[in-house]
Amino acid sequence: AVGDTTVVSAANVTTTAGLTAASLTVDATLTTTLGGDTRANGDIDIVSGVITALGDVLSQGGDITLEADTGALTLAAGTDVATLDGSIDLFGETGISLGANLGTDGNAGTVTIDGDITLTDNVSIDTSPVDVAGAGDVTVTGEIDGPFGMTMNVEGDLSISGDVGSAIALS
Fold first, then answer.
1. pTM to 2 decimals?
2. Cα 46 to Cα 155: distance, rounded to the nearest angstrom
3. Once rounded to an integer, what is the mean pLDDT over residues 61-86?
4. DSSP secondary structure string, 18-61?
C-alpha cells in the first residue's frame, strides 16, 4: 500500500495489477484504465476523458467519484464498486457500461449515477446498510437499458429520471 496518491495532468493512466493507497486522486485528459482491484482507505476521485475499471473499486472510509468527462465510463461485469462510509458518484458523458454491483454502508451512503446506463451483467445497487436517517438515496439521471436484471435495495429515496428498458428491455 502507498500513501495518498495524486496523479495530475496526465494524458493516460493505467494500473495493471491493482493499487492500494490511503487515497487516490487522478486527473487524466484521455483515458484511465484500472486493470486490477483499486482500494483506498479514503476517497477515490478519478476524472478522465474515458474510464475503464476491470476490477473492484473499494473505499474503506471515503467517497468514490468516477467521472468520464468526455467519453464512457465502463465498470466491468462481475465487479464491485463499494464504500463502507461514503457516497458513490458515477458520470459518463457518452454513457455508462454497468456490470458492477454498487454498494454503500455507514453514514452517508448515497449513490448518484449521471448518464445513460447499458447493463452488461446482472447488477445490484444496495444502500440498505446505511444507518442514518435521511441517507441512502439512489438517484439516476439517464436511461437504463440492457438485457440483464437490476436489483435495488434502497434505504432512502429512489429517483430515476430517464426511461427504463425503452431501447433494450431489462430481464
1. 0.96
2. 26
3. 96
4. -EEEEEEEEEEEEEEEE-S-EEESS-EEEEEEEEEE-S-EEESS
